[in-house]
Design brief:
Layout (H helix, E strand, L loop, with lengths): L3 E2 L2 H20 L6 E7 L3 H17 L2 E7 L5 H13 L5 E4 L9 H7 L11 H8 L9 H12 L8 E5 L6 H10 L3 E5 L6 H6 L3 E4 L17 E4 L3 E2 L5 E2 L4 H4 L5 E2 L6 H20 L1
Parallel strand pairs: 1-11, 2-3, 2-4, 5-6, 5-7, 7-8, 8-11
Antiparallel strand pairs: 9-10
The structure holds 5,10-Methenyltetrahydrofolate and magnesium ion.
């Protein structure tokens, strides 16, 4: 049987079209979702992501408020801006693009965002809700995007041996929790895991969120498995490359996500979904 290449671009477009419709209906009740996007510094990759988020807002009909602050911005200045946005009625969601410059304390910033406007789902209050299985509020964007890719490809999570490689607060940990809430049997691996290859070989569903180009090779994956690649590694030649050796692994897999065009676009679609949800919760 030929491998299903999961088309994240197409699926994210479907979601954006669903949201566009929903936002049109909301406008009849005079509700316009608003997202504030804050970027500190000049990282070119961050600028690209932030622009993609603004474009998605425009397409769907979400009003975006953009703050591009210089690298030297102090923690206090950033906290003051967030305080103002927390109190601004037109702003339903606040996103502070990560990573932040070294001199700014990231956890202090994430704590200062009003949890009801925390569309990234990074505030400890919202992280806590996810960890106790309350999934009716904001969902973390990349992990929720992964679940949506799987569901819309008609793949069942329940009962599957799910292996997540990576334990970051942004991807590894929350995706493990979402898979668990969908009744997967979840193993979370990391740099200190012993016999990583052996554990990966047992995975019916493997999520690679390591941050190393082509780390997962064909001999590490099970025949007939589902392979989800969260890697966004920029190579010296400018090309984007995943954490899975796509060419090597694809014939062994039942389904696999490409990079680009897999998980990445879903992250933005799920962010948009959280913005619409935020507007509903606040109106
Ligand atoms: N507060 C915050 N929230 C985030 O959600 C967040 C963040 N900070 N910092 C950086 C990471 C990374 N991230 C991506 C979003 C979209 C693509 C994406 O659309 N990727 C395209 C390709 C884009 C390209 O060519 O570079 C794709 O995979 O097809 C990738 C990565 C969100 N992040
Ligand atoms: Mg991400």
């Amino acid at each position: 049987m030929s491998t299903l290449i999961i088309d994240g671009k197409k699926i994210s477009q479907d979601i954006k079209d669903e949201l566009k419709k929903e936002v049109e209906e909301l406008s009849q009740k005079n509700i316009i979702p608003g997202l504030a996007v804050i970027l500190v510094g000049n990282d070119p990759a961050s600028k690209v992501y932030v622009n993609n988020k603004k474009k998605a807002c425009e397409y769907i009909g979400i009003k975006s408020f953009s703050y591009e602050l210089p690298q030297e911005t102090t923690e206090e200045e950033l906290l003051n801006l967030i305080d103002v946005l927390n109190k601004t009625k037109e702003v339903n969601g606040i996103l502070v693009q990560l990573p932040l410059p070294e001199h700014i304390n990231e956890s202090k910033i994430l704590l200062s965002i009003d949890p009801i406007k925390d569309v990234d789902c990074f505030h400890p209050y919202n992280v806590g809700l996810i960890s106790i299985g309350k999934m009716d509020g904001f969902l973390p964007c990349t992990p929720a995007g992964i679940i949506e890719l799987i569901k819309r490809s008609n793949i069942e999570i329940e009962g599957k041996n799910c292996v997540v490689v990576g334990r970051s607060n942004i991807v590894g940990k929350p995706v493990s929790q979402l898979l668990l809430s969908h009744n997967g049997t979840v193993t979370t691996c990391h740099s200190r895991t012993k016999e990583l290859a052996k554990i990966c070989q047992e995975a019916d569903l493997l999520v690679a969120a390591i941050g190393r180009p082509q780390f997962i090779k064909a001999d590490m994956v099970k025949e007939g498995s589902i392979l989800i690649d969260v890697g966004v590694n920029r190579l010296d030649n400018g090309k984007l490359c995943g954490d899975i050796d796509f060419e090597g692994c694809k014939d062994k897999a039942l389904a696999i996500t490409p990079v680009p065009g897999g998980v990445g676009p879903m992250t933005i679609a799920m962010l948009m979904k959280n913005c619409v949800k935020a507007a509903l919760m606040q109106n």
